[in-house]
Amino acid sequence: MEGQREINELHIPVGRPVRITMTSEDVIHSFFVPAFRTKEDVVPGRYSTTWFTATKPASITCFAPSTAAPTIRV
User: Fold this and answer.
1) CA-CA distance, 73 to 36, in Å (whole number)?
2) Which has more confidence, 28 or 15?
3) What pTM value is reported for the model?
4) In sequence order, which residues have a C-beta less than 8 Å from that of residue 40 and are 6 or more positions away?
5) Is the C-alpha dihedral spanning 19, 17, 12, 64 positive or negative?
6) Tell me, what's the pLDDT at 17?
């Protein structure tokens, strides 16, 4: 894997489309980033994909109600 790795943070580039593919091992999770107007439910045994593009640098909190909410650094 390339790039910086951190727990509870997601670093994404500005001006480039980002695709996130997620899965769950146990229960349904939700990945919600109001600033990017994206919400995706993550269901056990399935892959869920969402796309977004950051337009300016920022530090944005995303909401994952069943887990600790990670911070997105753009």
Assistant:
1) 13
2) 15
3) 0.64
4) 20, 22, 30, 31, 32, 48, 49, 50
5) negative
6) 92
